[in-house]
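Thread: "does anyone have the structure for this chain?"

Original post by V.I.:
We have the sequence but no experimental structure in hand. Need at least a predicted one for the grant figures.
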Amino acid sequence: MTRLTAVCVYAGSRLGLDPAFRRAAEELGRGMAERGIGLVYGGGNVGIMGVMADAALAAGGRVVGVIPRFLEEREARRRDLTEQHTVASMHERKAKMAELSDAFVVLPGGLGTLDETFEILTWRQLRLHDRPVLIADIAGYWTDLFRMLDRAVAEGFVQAGELALFERYASIDAVLRRLDVLAAPPHADALGRA
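Reply from O.Q.:
Generated one for you, tokens below.
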């Protein structure tokens, strides 16, 4: 089996109020670069996603951005990335990021991060891919989300087994240790990844 070569990270386009979020983004970007794992992300230079890209680049990592044309100004499109893809829509952005990635990591973020996370989880639920989705619950940021999902199970809207579609980690160190042991999927899936 091939080692992971690229991981998509969903992260906020804002810094958030807790300094732990910024530190987590820096640690993840640097840690992935040190392991030779390419970073695939939204392509902007804002928020914790920009901090993460800075850290990965500073550590000599490969960083691939995917940004919709209409967000190039708002998210400050970067010119210093290893590779930059400009797409027409958010739908194309999410599909391209998935196509380029062997696994997914979720950092704290807002509505866009939630959208990306739930779409990739839904694609996994529908068996369009079977790549790992790791949620970094930094400073308990996602705790209420996990409670909501438990409620959805209790109310019969989600099957209990579907909570296995993602893995929950309390620290970036734990996420990086998990990335160390993951291997890329050995077969092509419905999203075209081998």
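V.I.: this helps a lot. The longest strand covers residues 63-68.
O.Q.: and The longest helix spans residues 19-34.
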